[in-house]
């Protein structure tokens, strides 16, 4: 493929690297905010004697999904490890929730 053909193809795809980077960072901040807020609400619910495992399972499932996707795309071992840890938290939290804890 000639240089001009490659340039035209890239322009036709309209993939903006800056836009992708901003999107990735926004997802990171969404994760951080979600985990932080869930931790606060879980603590408050726990102090009031209310079950908190539903929040733990929900947040952990979200992080598990994100890390699994990252592992599939990058094949980085650390993403797989975090995904497996989050999956175990999801299973434990879900079982605890259904047992009434």
Q: Which strand-content bin applies to the residues?
A: under 5%
Indicate the low-confidence ranges by residue numbers: none
Please trace the helix and strand order, writing H or E for each element: HHHH
- How many strands in all? 0
**What's the alpha carbon Rg, rounded to whole Å?**
20 Å
Structure classification: mainly alpha
Average pLDDT, all residues? 86
Give the helix level as a range of percent: over 70%
State the shape: elongated
Give the N-terminus to C-terminus distance in angstroms.
Answer: 62 Å
Brief characterization of the structure:
The radius of gyration is 20 Å and the shape is elongated. By secondary structure, the protein is mainly α.
Identify the notable features of this structure and list them briefly.
101 residues, mainly alpha, 4 helices, 85% helix, elongated
Question: What can you tell me about this protein's structure?
Answer:
- It is built from four helices and no strands.
- By secondary structure, the chain is mostly helical.
- Helix 2 (17-47) packs antiparallel against helix 3 (53-74) and helix 3 packs antiparallel against helix 4 (77-98).
- The chain is elongated and about 65 Å long.
């Amino acid at each position: 493929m000639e240089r001009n053909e490659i340039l035209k193809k890239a322009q036709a795809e309209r993939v903006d690297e800056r836009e992708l980077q901003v999107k990735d960072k926004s997802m990171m901040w969404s994760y951080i905010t979600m985990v932080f807020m869930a931790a606060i609400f879980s603590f408050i619910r726990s102090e009031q004697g209310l079950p908190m495992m539903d929040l733990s399972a929900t947040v952990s499932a979200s992080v598990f999904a994100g890390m699994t996707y990252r592992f599939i795309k990058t094949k980085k071992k650390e993403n797989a490890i975090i995904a497996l840890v989050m999956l175990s938290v999801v299973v434990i939290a879900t079982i605890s929730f259904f047992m009434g804890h």
